[in-house]
């Protein structure tokens, strides 16, 4: 057996972590887009 399989640091589901990473990164880029849209709207 692999030695890393015996000493697992986290037993959480990887899909939850991947989903949270996607949501956080999507939220960051959406925030940047919204700020850019507001700046463009105000500059008119």
TrEMBL record:
Alphabetic keyword roster: Membrane, Transmembrane, Transmembrane helix
**KW Transmembrane (keyword) present:** yes
Q: Which domain of life is it from?
A: Bacteria
Residue ranges crossing the lipid bilayer per the database entry: 20-43
UniProt cross-references to Pfam families, sorted A to Z: YqzM
- Name-wise, this protein is YqzM family protein
Q: What organism does the UniProt record list as the source?
A: Planococcus chinensis
């Amino acid at each position: 057996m692999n030695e890393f399989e015996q000493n697992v640091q986290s037993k959480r589901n990887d899909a939850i972590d991947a989903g949270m990473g996607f949501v956080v990164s999507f939220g960051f880029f959406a925030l940047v887009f919204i700020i850019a849209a507001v700046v463009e709207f105000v500059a008119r």
